[in-house]
């Protein structure tokens, strides 16, 4: 009884121990859990099937209905990796992702700093324009961007132009601006009194206090750059600098067998998962900011 008595407040959460005292609530909770388990199965089954299928040989893949392979063909993964030249694709994809993450954090963060902290002249107009740009799909400026690459001669085998799209995201600028406005201005005033300029304030005060938003931006930039296909395909195809997504697409027209394509799909999803697992803990951090006393 003491356990139930502890959860009498209606603000305890969606599912409370106190609700379990009523039969209809117990039935509803069971149905909710059953629906969640079913949805989880529908989402996880293709991933689990792909994982086990990559360890099968070609005959077992088409003849056996069992998900779990009879024998684990570990050498097959190494053969597919070497045959598809995925090491080179991994290198260029990571090269692109690192540049996109840096540009996204630095340039979008500086824009958010100018709008949320400095509040330069005309910042309200710029903020209104950013809100309007949120209504424009990301592909809306694709033609103009690619034509600019062609006219500048940077559309053939050069990967650094792909960084430019990550450095001017209206949504990311909006997140930085809103987050920076929640940081007490006492920090900025104290730093200004000590002679710090805007660069020092941004790099030594703002960024260390903004770990959650930096982690979110890094995850979005990394996954977006890793899964980007169209622009890398137009700029990097047949240059020896193909990214993972371009390499994965090119295998469909180069006579690669189904097993190699499945293994290539598995190779392509591993880095984003690892990157998310590393940085997701920073998103959940409670960014406790205390005021400056005195």
Summarize the structure in words.
This protein has two domains: 2-53; 84-283, MetI-like (MetI-like fold, Orthogonal Bundle). The protein is 67% helix and 0% strand. It has helices at 2-5, 23-53, 58-63, 74-83, 86-118, 123-133, 142-152, 170-181, 186-193, 198-209, 211-227, 230-236, 244-251, 258-283. Helix 5 (86-118) runs antiparallel to helix 11, helix 11 (211-227) packs antiparallel against helix 14 (258-283) and helix 13 runs antiparallel to helix 14. Belongs to the binding-protein-dependent transport system permease family. The chain crosses the membrane at residues 27-52, 89-113, 125-146, 158-180, 201-222, 264-283.
Q: Which key features would you list for this structure?
A:
membrane; mainly alpha; MetI-like fold; transport; 14 helices; 2 domains; single chain; globular; 294 residues
Share of residues in helices:
55-70%
Strand content: under 5%
Major sheet size, sense and barrel closure: none
Counting helices, strands and paired strands, the structural category is: mainly alpha
Write down the domain tally: 2
The N- and C-terminal alpha carbons lie at a distance of 48 Å
Radius of gyration: 25 Å
The CATH class designation of the largest domain is Mainly Alpha
Order of helices and strands: HHHHHHHHHHHHHH
